[in-house]
Amino acid sequence: MNANVPRRTSSLMPTPLRSRTRGPKVVAFGGGHGLSASLNALRHLTRDLTAVVTVADNGGSSGRLRAELPILPPGDLRMALSALCEDSEWGVTWRDVVQHRFTSDGEINGHSLGNLLIVALWQLLDDPIAALDYVGELLGTSGRVLPMALEPLDIEALVSFPGEELRTIRGQADVAATTGHVEDLRIIPPEPQIAREVLDSIEEAEWLVIGPGSWYTSVLPHVKIAELRDAITHTNARKVLTMNLAAGRSETVGLTSTDLLAIVCDAAPELRFNALVADPSVERDGGKALVTAAHDRGIDVLMRTVSTNDGTPTHDPLRLATAYRDVFNGVFTHPWKD
């Protein structure tokens, strides 16, 4: 960190995290709304929480900033920080500030203030992780946010469409929106630099939580990079896979939750998940088959209502937190008999 940048304090600022009661050491992987859902739940269970966030976003404000500056896309990092903010007037106010998106007739239109704040700190500190720590302290976050790589990534997919030749689609935004069948996925560059802090957090963790999220653009990238996959595979931490509330949409069109389980397991054959969390709504796309497939792979299953039940595929933070708590305590139930 730049020694010329002073560390400011205020009587209004939240109590430092080190003085708070901590729970188990947990690392959560993902990006966008899916990672925010798991972080919103996990922060109720532990303050020893690290988010490892995808850095391949090329759409919206992040895409515009990334095209103009040699930086990581800040959007998913901002969302993870906002999800971890403390439930105080201070935390909620700063969450709203960093999430604020400008509306204008000029070039600032569509930019998130939090994205600009993160980029400003990156330029001032010349240290992407220190900058994220500064924003985390400002929000009073219940944990730490780290980028999965220290350089911006691109996602490239080989996609098939009925009656057409295979098509190559590049860019997270376009891959996430495709309605074709993803046949193969590549991360560019394939061997990016991984921060020591990321590898240390995985090594020291008691639990790793992967998913939910866009399967090909937020979940799978973490096991497609060899160094990160090896760290996840060989740590002593227990591993939890959180299934999406709705499969078969956009990039996973025509797929079931059982298919999604196979995709992530086949991408990392040596990786062994200890537990799987799914909502009973997956019964509509073969929930019983999902339980059977998980058990066949030696994975314990917790089938529990973790959605808001409002007709949208949205996780309820407290229900998901209760599910994670039960998994951490070794409680596994599902509505079907084996």
Strand content: 5-15%
Helix count, DSSP H or I runs of 4 or more residues: 14
> Strand sequence of the main sheet, in spatial order?
3-2-1-7-8-9-10
- Written as H for each helix and E for each strand, in order along the chain, the element string is EHEHHHHHEEEHEHEHHHEHEHEH
- The beta-strand count equals 10
Shape: globular
Family: Belongs to the gluconeogenesis factor family.
Organism: Dermabacter hominis 1368
Main location: cytoplasm
Subcellular location: Cytoplasm
Relevant terms:
alpha/beta; 338 residues; Gluconeogen_factor; Putative gluconeogenesis factor; disordered N terminus; CofD-like_dom_sf; 3-stranded antiparallel β-sheet; 14 helices; CofD
Topology:
Blueprint: E1 26-30, H1 32-42, E2 49-53, H2 60-68, H3 75-83, H4 89-99, H5 113-125, H6 128-139, E3 144-147, E4 154-160, E5 167-170, H7 172-177, E6 181-188, H8 196-204, E7 207-210, H9 215-219, H10 221-224, H11 226-234, E8 238-242, H12 257-267, E9 275-278, H13 287-296, E10 300-303, H14 317-328
Parallel strand pairs: 1-2, 1-7, 2-3, 7-8, 8-9, 9-10
Antiparallel strand pairs: 4-5, 4-6
Helix pairs in contact: 1-3, 1-14, 3-4, 5-6, 12-13
Can you describe this structure?
The strands form 2 sheets. This protein has a 7-stranded parallel β-sheet, sandwiched between helices. Helix 5 (113-125) crosses helix 6 (128-139). It is globular, with a radius of gyration of 20 Å. 39% of the residues lie in helices and 15% in strands. The longest helix has 13 residues, at 113-125. The protein has helices at 32-42, 60-68, 75-83, 89-99, 113-125, 128-139, 172-177, 196-204, 215-219, 221-224, 226-234, 257-267, 287-296, 317-328; strands at residues 26-30, 49-53, 144-147, 154-160, 167-170, 181-188, 207-210, 238-242, 275-278, 300-303. Residues 1-20 have low confidence and may be disordered. It contains 14 helices and 10 strands. It has 338 residues and is an alpha/beta fold. Helix 1 (32-42) links the parallel strand 1 and strand 2.
